[in-house]
Specification:
11-stranded mixed sheet, alpha+beta, 2 domains, Fumarylacetoacetate hydrolase, domain 2, 19 strands, 4-stranded antiparallel sheet
Length: 309
């Protein structure tokens, strides 16, 4: 059964003391659901006057460079109508026809883990050098059909003996290379396969249900603060098997720089999603099992929940 995503807004009480005409949304959240898309702003959900859940319509919306301002105007002009909802169900991954790419070794903790997993294969030096290099590691992660949304099962490869989730901030990037939104990402990884040889990275990273995105697109006018926290919990048979947390301030790479490198000599007609790397790595003794529940929370965005199946 799908969980209901309820409204929560930091700073609501302070904002409600302002006159109605002076209020300005600090954040907006855009959801894609089985019954259409919704914007959450302040304590209200809005739905467009005419909308089809067809992926082409979603693409035409989220590829806009002015996505935040476009939705704000739509609410103010009445093109997005308030609906009497206190939560949402049947939330889908916020992706249309976009590719998903990823950056690696952007946190010191990730560097340590990669050195450890690949030292016997002689690949440790590669990860050490890329952490200190100007050029980041960027790799293709998933096509839309390999991405799952909230409450959908992610997969572990049946030929991997060591599999982990990687909780990451995901950027929504427009065709022109503008960061227009943020969401929660889970970059599932087969560490045993990647550790055998760095050249096996595509097999370790790209497979069916290898990536999860959601629950929404956070739309803000300014970049997320470095104090933004990423947390992950893994539950096994209802018990906490692992938990960890990190801050965006621990990321060595600047998100805008990652996008700039990704868009060098490359085009994305529908825009793309870019996972920005992980700073939370379970111990080497841990591997995911079928039935585990992965909960990834990023401040201001929400919690992405997926089981392993």
């Amino acid at each position: 059964m799908s969980r209901v995503i309820s409204i929560t807004h930091p700073g609501d009480d302070q904002d409600k003391r302002l006159p109605a005409k002076t209020r300005r949304p600090t954040i907006m959240k855009l959801y894609r659901t089985a019954s259409g898309c919704f914007v959450e702003e302040q304590d209200q959900f809005y739905k467009p006057s005419a909308y089809s859940s067809d992926a082409d319509r979603w693409d035409s919306l989220i590829t806009r460079d002015d996505l935040y301002r476009h939705l704000l105007r739509g609410i103010q002009d009445g093109n997005w109508k308030p609906v009497g909802l206190t939560g949402l169900e049947n939330i889908l991954a916020p992706i249309g026809s976009q590719e998903v790419w990823a950056a690696g070794v952007t946190y010191y903790r990730s560097r340590e883990a990669r050195l450890e997993e690949s030292k016997q294969a002689g690949g440790g030096g590669f990860y050490d050098r890329v952490y200190d290099a100007q050029r980041p590691e960027l790799f293709f992660k998933a096509t839309p059909n390999r991405v799952v949304g909230p409450e959908e099962p992610v997969a572990i490869r049946d030929d991997s003996t060591w599999s982990v989730p990687e909780p990451e901030l995901a950027l929504l990037v427009s065709p022109k290379g503008t960061i227009t939104g943020y969401t929660v990402g889970n970059d599932m990884s087969s560490r045993s396969i990647e550790g055998e040889n760095p050249l096996y990275l595509p097999q370790a990273k790209v497979y069916n249900r290898c990536c999860a995105l959601g629950p929404c697109l956070l739309l803000v006018e300014t970049p997320l603060p470095s104090s933004t926290e990423i947390r992950m919990e893994i539950l096994r048979e209802g018990r906490h098997e692992f938990h960890g947390a990190t801050l965006l301030s621990s990321m060595k790479r600047d998100p805008a720089t990652l996008v700039q490198y990704l868009y060098r000599n490359n085009t994305f007609p529908s825009g793309c999603f870019l996972l920005t790397g992980t700073g939370i790595v379970p111990p080497d003794t841990f591997t995911l099992k079928a039935g585990d529940e992965i909960r990834i929370t990023i401040t201001s965005i929400g919690t992405l929940v997926n089981s392993v199946g």
